[in-house]
């Protein structure tokens, strides 16, 4: 097994790269959102009002728009058909707030239209959560049991489901943002340069999902390097 220093596994560099990517993406989205949250939309609509208008324009009347505490904790819950908007979006009139609200509406529209990647992602949630929770314990137990490879391999396979979930998330998020921009432009909720500003906010947000997928892939690669097909030393 390669080492940079005694007792320090050199594959930690993969974890470090993933962490740096995630931190960088988080910094970009926070900076971009902060910048455009200071730009008031010409329509004067709040994020909640924009969400209601977008949903109704798409013929969706059974989704409830709600306020949820926190900053950028916005999400759409397909189980309860609720669109939850955070403090920085729900009652704010900025182009950033409206863009984020529209993005979450994009998920509601995906759900209404039976968008296949969203359906697949929802189906993967339970197994991805299980994989994330028990993959490392299985691997560690396998190593303790005189390097019991079947148990180690099972742990790696379970972790791979979490990676697949992250990969499936990418088209879901990109499509929701594309729908958001198109709807905002078509409905006239935002005008001209405002749409461009919103694109920048949503593009920055997309980086967080790309970084999360990259970090998961790097972690899976590390597991394969360390434990995949390896015999006891």
TrEMBL record:
InterPro entries: Zn_peptidase_2 (IPR007395). It comes from Anaerocolumna cellulosilytica. This is Peptidase. Pfam families: Zn_peptidase_2. The lineage of its organism: Bacteria, Bacillati, Bacillota, Clostridia, Lachnospirales.
């Amino acid at each position: 097994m390669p080492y940079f220093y005694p007792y320090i596994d050199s594959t930690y560099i993969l974890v470090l790269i993933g962490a740096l990517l995630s931190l960088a993406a988080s910094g970009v989205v926070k900076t971009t959102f902060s910048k455009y949250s200071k730009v008031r939309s010409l329509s004067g609509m709040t994020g909640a009002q924009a969400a209601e208008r977008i949903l109704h324009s798409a013929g969706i009347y059974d989704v409830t728009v709600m306020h949820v505490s926190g900053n950028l904790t916005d999400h759409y819950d397909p189980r309860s058909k609720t669109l939850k908007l955070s403090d920085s979006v729900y009652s704010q009139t900025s182009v950033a707030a409206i863009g984020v609200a529209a993005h979450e509406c994009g998920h509601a529209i995906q759900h209404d239209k039976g968008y296949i990647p969203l359906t697949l992602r929802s189906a993967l949630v339970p197994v991805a959560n299980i994989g994330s929770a028990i993959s490392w314990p299985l691997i560690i137990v396998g190593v303790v049991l005189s390097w019991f490879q079947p148990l180690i391999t099972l742990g790696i396979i379970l972790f791979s489901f979490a990676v697949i979930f992250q990969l499936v998330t990418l088209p879901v998020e990109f499509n929701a943002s594309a729908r958001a921009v198109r709807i905002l432009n078509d409905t006239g909720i935002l005008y001209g340069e405002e749409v461009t500003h919103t694109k920048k906010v949503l593009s920055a947000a997309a980086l967080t999902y790309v970084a999360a997928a990259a970090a998961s892939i790097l972690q899976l690669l590390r597991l394969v390097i360390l434990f995949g097909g390896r015999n006891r030393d």
